[in-house]
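Incident log, support desk, overnight shift.

02:14 A customer reports that sequence design results differ from what the structure should imply. Their input is reproduced verbatim below. On-call engineer (initials T.W.) acknowledged and began investigating.
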């Protein structure tokens, strides 16, 4: 595998990792918000 192909693959993996991190963060915030709302009622 050439260095150029490796760089492209790493960039793609990095992009996927960022998307997964954002989705996980959004899910955690959603669960946190639901917990707050349930505790206040």
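02:41 Re-run completed on a clean worker. Output:
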């Amino acid at each position: 595998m050439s260095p150029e192909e490796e760089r492209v693959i790493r960039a793609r993996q990095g992009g996927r990792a960022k998307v997964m991190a954002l989705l996980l963060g959004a899910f955690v915030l959603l669960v946190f918000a639901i917990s707050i709302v349930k505790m206040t009622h």
